């Protein structure tokens, strides 16, 4: 392909790099890259890949822009709130570089559509924020022989690597053979995330993508780069392809895509004596009784956005100092966003001698899905 005079001017600083030059820039302009997720990680990935001149950028995301995301999802603006992220992202990228062809997939990746979407791209950048999608992207990339530029963030820490068994490296299952137990890892809404952190990790993902396309430098294949923002430290972990991996090992047993939501959720377990289902919370709120007290252990800023009517607010961050405010002889129903903090708070009270304490399994997210009575934060 030939670059136009406008393109030669736009990418002049790339052309000045001997490692890139005209040949490398032509590769970049001819490349097709899919970014899964147009949120915190996807924002810097898409912005820098569009600026670099990647010929075709695909965006797969079924979510809408939310104001609470804007401190880290810099691809979107305040007036885009409520709009599909794919539409908002596509417009922003076209404003940045009209020469880039943007393809939007305003749908969630599933086992039914992942192969058809991913097979049209040369490189996949995983900017997803949940385990089912990460395993799905990984498996589809391995089965299709596509490189997967992986990134993830949690509070103040991020990870990035290049996952590509067909190039001699490991896949995501080699790093993490099994997903964590449901509720063990809280999401951004509950745990929080430093707004600039996905910028750091997303820029590293974009860098790895451009190096891979241009065929320059040393990639993160076989290396997991971990960044600790609080300590301002990077550390590197060597990762190898697992010969026993069920997907990319010597005797693979995974031949096709499956139900990743069900697999990551694990088999349904019976409620323990310390758990309540969302229906019990609904009943306690709809028919308040003196014998049951609903306690919201979220932080005040969370409760202000989505209050639970009739609940006593006792933030988890203050629990160690204020737990004595709760009556030990009253039945307590504890809730939070996803059920993680409320479970820990219930265990705390049990150790303090409280007899009737339950945590709502799945938290307000599960309650919302079942009863549609509030919108989770």
Q: Keywords for this structure?
A:
alpha/beta, Oxidized Rhodanese, domain 1, 2 domains, five-stranded parallel β-sheet, 16 helices
Could you tell me the strand content as a percent range?
A: 15-25%
Q: What's the story with the biggest beta sheet?
A: 8 strands, mixed
Strand ordering within the main sheet: 3-2-1-4-5-6-7-8
Q: What is the domain total for the residues?
A: 2
CATH topology of the largest domain: Rossmann fold
Estimate the mean pLDDT confidence: 91
Radius of gyration computed on alpha carbons: 23 Å
For the terminal residues, how far apart are their CA atoms?
A: 48 Å
Residue stretches low in confidence (pLDDT < 50, at least 5 long) are 373-377
The CATH architecture classification of the largest domain is 3-Layer(aba) Sandwich
What is the CATH H-level superfamily of the largest domain? NAD(P)-binding Rossmann-like Domain
Give the tally of β-strands: 13
Per DSSP, the total helix count is: 16
Helix content: 25-40%
Overall, the morphology is: elongated
Order of helices and strands: HHHEHEHEHEHEEHHHEEHEHEHEHEHEH
Helix-strand makeup class: alpha/beta
What is the CATH level 1 assignment of the largest domain?
Alpha Beta
